[in-house]
Every structure is written in C-alpha cells, then in structure tokens.
Design brief:
Length: about 200
C-alpha cells in the first residue's frame, strides 16, 4: 500500500468532489474541517463546536492551521456520517475526506504510460483495459524541491527562508559569497552525503 502524502494546504478546496470511506479501508479515518472565516475561528472554539455536537463519533481533534482541524473518527461509517452533520453548516464550517485517504494512483505501461486513480487504499496488481491485461505500478510523484533554500517539501514560491542558500556549502548566498566547498567532491547540503546530482541546477544558477 502506498504511504499517504503529507498534508497539503491545497487540499482545502471547496470545489472538490465528495469522497467517502468504504468498508475495506483501514484506519485512521480522518475528516478535514475548515472555517469559511478562518481569521475569526480560534482552534479552541472550533474543537468545542465539534466535540459538543459529535463526540460519540470521534477519537481526536488536531489543529492544522488557522480555522482548520483534522478529526479522527472511530470508524469509516462514523467519518462518513460527519460529512452530513448539520453542525458544520450551522457554524459556517466545511467537512470533507481528503482524496489521499481513499484513492491511490497507479501507472500502466504499454505504448504510452497512463496514470490512473483507483478507489480504495490498495492498488490492484493488474487491470484489464480494452480486453488487454496490464500490470499496475505504483505512481510516485516527483519530490518538491525549493531552488531558494534547496530543501525538500515545498517550492520556491512558498519558501519562508529569509535568504537563499548556496547549493554547495549551505551558507547564505550574498552577492559577494565565496563558496568554500570543493565542488569536485559534491555533498548534499541537507544530509551531508556524497551526491552526483548537483549538476542539475535551476536556470538562474
């Protein structure tokens, strides 16, 4: 089974389709909740509204950001029931099950590679498409790499570093930066291990 990705802020999109857990899905059964007015909804208020109304169906409530929370439900049915609970609409809240909890992406290879999303948490080993049998491979998305700080998990547009880092020594890159690193013996500035990938620089380097 594929490991679920990290929580993505873009998951809070009001136009998303509605997903539900099936009886074959395994825990944890999470439901995301967000406020239409996040700046005015403190987490203590949000958690109290949820707990007072639906405490019999939930195990835990976690804060995810301003006006956002993750509810861990006791079962798949309990999580699905939360989606239609009137307490959310009454308090200008939205609840949804994130797609990464109930869908998996796979690749089939033939003349062309095709990415397919499958319902459920486990990929099938094979599928039949137009009467032809294809093996299904796990789809592994490319890692996000920031070309400002060279850390993994976000892109340059979302970087919170105050200054860019040197790809070779990890120090702040000033205009007069003189890199002390031996570039013929390249190492990763994040883990310190030897690396041969430092030739793949972004266009502005």
């Amino acid at each position: 089974m594929l490991a679920p990705p990290a929580h993505d802020p873009k998951a809070f999109n009001p136009t998303r389709p509605t997903y539900k857990y099936s009886n074959n899905d395994i825990s944890s059964y999470v439901v995301y909740v967000y406020s239409d007015k996040p700046s005015t909804m403190h987490f203590s208020v949000l958690s109290r509204i949820i707990s007072d109304s639906i405490k019999n169906d939930i195990l835990l409530i976690k804060r995810l950001g301003a006006g956002k929370a993750i509810i861990e439900a006791k079962s798949a049915d309990a999580a699905n029931r939360l989606l239609s609970n009137p307490v959310f609409e009454k308090n200008n809240l939205r609840a949804f099950i994130p797609s990464f909890k109930v869908l998996r992406s796979g690749i089939i290879r033939g003349v062309l590679s095709v990415q397919i999303k499958f319902a459920g948490q486990i990929l099938p080993s094979e599928i039949v498409l137009f009467n032809a049998l294809y093996k299904v491979y796990a789809f592994v998305p490319k890692a996000k790499i920031c070309y400002t700080c060279y850390r993994v998990g976000h892109i340059e547009r979302d970087c919170k570093s105050s200054r860019p880092r040197c790809l070779f020594c990890g120090s702040s890159c000033e205009e007069d930066h003189s890199c002390p690193a031996n570039k013929s013996q390249a190492t990763c500035i994040n883990c310190g291990r030897a690396s041969s990938n430092l030739t793949h620089l972004p266009p502005h380097h």
